[in-house]
Amino acid sequence: MLVDTQSLVSLTEANQNFSRVVRLVDERGSVVILRNNVPRYVVLDYGQVEAEQATDDEVATAGRRWIAKHRAAFEELAK
Predict the structure, then answer these.
(1) Cβ neighbours of residue 29 under 8 Å, at least 6 residues apart?
(2) Other beta carbons within 10 Å of 10
(3) Are the C-beta atoms of residues 33 and 18 closer than 8 Å to each other?
(4) Mean pLDDT across the stretch 25-46?
(5) How far apart are CA 31 and CA 21, in angstroms?
(6) pTM as predicted
(7) What is the CATH number of the domain that holds 62?
(8) Domain containing residue 73
(9) pLDDT single digits (tens) 5-29
(10) Cβ(44)–Cβ(52) under 8 Å?
(11) How far apart are CA 44 and CA 21, in angstroms?
(12) Contacts of 21 by beta carbon, 8 Å cutoff, 6+ apart
């Protein structure tokens, strides 16, 4: 995951000024919260999570369909 240095926020700052974190998420799509100067948490826009989940579901569905279509070949290879 590439992290934009403008999207880094300390845990202390996130606790004291969460509205700033939300504004950054609105502007940049995500924010990384640092704990002891180490990336620890990610805050994402929910729409981004939904889109990624939909893509994962599509890939899984396509994979199951492909495996079902070629089941005989996989069974032969497994011998």
Answers:
(1) 44, 45, 48
(2) 13
(3) no
(4) 92
(5) 7
(6) 0.60
(7) 3.40.1620.10
(8) 5-78
(9) 788 999 999 999 999 999 999 998 8
(10) no
(11) 10
(12) 9, 13, 14, 31, 33, 43
Q: How many domains does the chain have?
A: 1
The answer to whether 4 touches 28, Cβ cutoff 8 Å, is: yes
Q: Are 43 and 30 in contact (CB under 8 A)?
A: yes
Backbone φ, ψ for residue 37 (5° rounding): 60, 25
Give kind and range of the element (H or E) at residue 31.
strand 30-35
Whole-angstrom distance, CA of residue 74 vs CA of residue 60:
17
Please, which residues have CB within 8 angstroms of residue 3's CB and are 6 or more apart in sequence?
Answer: 32, 39
How many degrees, rounded to 5, is the angle at CA 47 between CA 46 and CA 48? 90
21 vs 11: CA distance, rounded Å: 10
Instruction: Collapse the DSSP code of 43 into the 3-class scheme (helix H, G, I; strand E, B; otherwise coil) and give the result.
Output: strand
Contact (Cβ atoms closer than 8 angstroms) between residue 45 and residue 25: yes
